[in-house]
Amino acid sequence: MGGAESKEAHRKIHNASLDGVTFPKTLELKYDPSWKKLSLSLFHGSEPLYTFNLPEGWWGDLIMYNGPTLEHPPLAAVRNSGKTAMGNVVTLPPLGPGQEVIEEKMSHRRKGFNYLYSFAVPVPEREGEKTTRRVERFEWVGSGGKEVKDLHEWTHGWKLRRVTESYADAYAGSDDEKDDGEATTYENTDGEILAVWADATMSVKKAAKFEFINSGATGELGEAWALMAIVTFVRVWQRCMQVVVV
Questions:
Q1: What is the top-level taxon of the source organism (predicted)?
Q2: Domain count along the chain
Q3: Which candidate, 65, 143, 186, 210, has a CA 20 to 30 Å from the CA of 73?
Q4: How far, in Å, are 11, 174, 200 from residue 47 at the CA level?
């Protein structure tokens, strides 16, 4: 599961909390232009809010810290999985006291020359006066649509949408066969777009720009969904960068 820092981060996430985890509507992902430390930061305007670390380099695990420095406690992490180490297992804090951490395999599949990344996460659901939770599936898909262009960054980026049709079990079959998280059966039509991001242009330090839109911007999907959207955005960006730095 990676090196000592990654293992320690995953251990600490068991004791972390989603309480008070909030994100502004728009965020910018920035990095040290030296590219030596491979640490990334999420900014809102000029204010750094959260920091990410890639302790084993571009091809290793991703750790998100609950504050602007690496001295803050870990909040979420993504580790490599599978024989090819191209699988992505996301770990989030428990939904509440006494509950287990959220651990989700982010599956991927090809569509033409692009990859699509899919994950499931519990979201709130109102039943009369009571709030329950349901597990809903979402996917990141490459896009050059209006939502991405409205970011005024690179003209082609990614959109996060609801999966509106049945999603066949991406891990059917043996554990070894599906351990890298690759989905083989998939049925979907375009659902509501909830977030978008695009690579930054004309900038030395800025890596990408992210925005919650539609229902994704209202907070109605809950803290776990918002955190999952953010950490998977950065993970997909990391996977894209692996192609560039090879």
A1: Eukaryota
A2: 1
A3: 210
A4: 28, 46, 18
